[in-house]
């Protein structure tokens, strides 16, 4: 049975937005698994996502304080239908990212990360897929805010979509 994923990062609630948009909440409701790659900023959003998501995997980011760091790991690892995932907030500069992450995450098929607010989808030389969903609340230098959806089926990632988010 396929697993529907929602990938989020850099929500920065309530600093960049007071709340997630109805569009993001609808995606949460539709997902079997929500992955959040850090920079929540305040714990109430974590509470809301824990209550509403069918399953939630998250990590803390550089803008997250002591309570979020106590409740969330710096790196999360999980497997969906044989596909090995890792989640982390920061991966360093874009230059050399693929090679660096290949080295740092050797037993991983898909690495979800955040920090830059810049959507990213590449494959490292060793086959590691690197995904950054951007931010659904703070587009920075991007034309729109974003999140990603995907499906895992029979151990393969498919239907990966960068979704523009209306604020």
Summarize this structure briefly.
The protein is an alpha/beta fold and 167 residues long. The protein has helices at residues 22-30, 43-52, 66-71, 97-104, and strands at 3-8, 33-36, 56-58, 75-80, 83-88, 110-112, 120-123, 129-132, 145-153, 156-165. This is Phosphoesterase.
Output the keywords:
10 strands; 167 residues; 5-stranded mixed β-sheet; 20% helix; Purple Acid Phosphatase, chain A, domain 2; alpha/beta; 4 helices
Please tell me about this protein's structure.
By secondary structure, the protein is of the alpha/beta class. The protein has one domain (3-165): Purple Acid Phosphatase, chain A, domain 2, CATH 3.60.21. It is 20% helix and 33% strand. It has helices spanning 22-30, 43-52, 66-71, 97-104, and strands at residues 3-8, 33-36, 56-58, 75-80, 83-88, 110-112, 120-123, 129-132, 145-153, 156-165. The strands form two sheets. A five-stranded mixed sheet has the order 3-2-1-9-10, covered by helices on one side. α1 links the parallel β1 (3-8) and β2 (33-36). The radius of gyration is 15 Å and the shape is globular.
Low-confidence stretches: none
CATH topology title: Purple Acid Phosphatase, chain A, domain 2
Domain count: 1
**Through-space gap between termini:** 32 Å
Percentage of β-strand residues: 25-35%
- SSE pattern: EHEHEHEEHEEEEE
Q: Strand order within the widest sheet? A: 3-2-1-9-10
Global structural class: alpha/beta
Shape: globular
How large is the count of helical segments?
Answer: 4
């Amino acid at each position: 049975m396929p697993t529907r994923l929602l990938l989020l990062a850099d929500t920065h609630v309530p600093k960049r937005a007071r709340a997630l948009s109805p569009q993001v909440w609808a995606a949460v409701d539709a997902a079997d698994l929500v992955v959040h790659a850090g920079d929540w900023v305040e714990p109430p959003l974590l509470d809301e996502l824990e209550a509403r998501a069918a399953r939630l995997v998250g990590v803390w980011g550089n803008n997250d304080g002591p309570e979020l760091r106590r409740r969330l790991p710096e790196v999360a690892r999980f497997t969906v239908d044989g596909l090995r995932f890792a989640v982390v907030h920061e991966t360093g500069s874009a230059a050399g990212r693929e090679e660096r992450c290949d080295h740092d995450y050797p037993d991983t098929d898909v690495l979800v990360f955040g920090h830059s607010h810049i959507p990213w989808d590449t494959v490292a030389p060793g086959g590691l897929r690197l995904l950054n969903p951007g931010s659904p609340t703070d587009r920075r230098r991007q034309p729109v805010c974003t999140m990603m959806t995907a499906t895992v089926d029979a151990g393969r990632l498919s239907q990966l979509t960068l979704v523009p988010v209306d604020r």
